[in-house]
Design brief:
mainly alpha
């Protein structure tokens, strides 16, 4: 067991993910956050949380597209 410190905004955000008042924060973190470093875990997270509908997806998509078009072919 570890003790962590959260500011008020982070605490309220984490608390809002609780399904029932008695759910532990450890359970919330394990349920919501994907395992680090695996694409399978990321895919599972995306499918489970239906992140396709998030408004931040547009910003992410635009950032990826901008970066892709800014890259130059190193062979030319």
């Amino acid at each position: 067991m570890k003790t962590i410190t959260l500011d008020d905004v982070a605490y309220l955000r984490l608390k809002s993910w609780k399904r029932i008042p008695s759910e532990s924060f450890s359970s919330v973190v394990k349920r919501v956050l994907p395992e680090p470093g695996t694409l399978g875990a990321l895919l599972n997270f995306i499918e489970t949380h239906q992140t396709r509908s998030l408004s931040s997806n547009i910003l992410l998509e635009e950032s990826v597209e901008d970066r892709s078009s800014a890259k130059q072919d190193p062979w030319t």
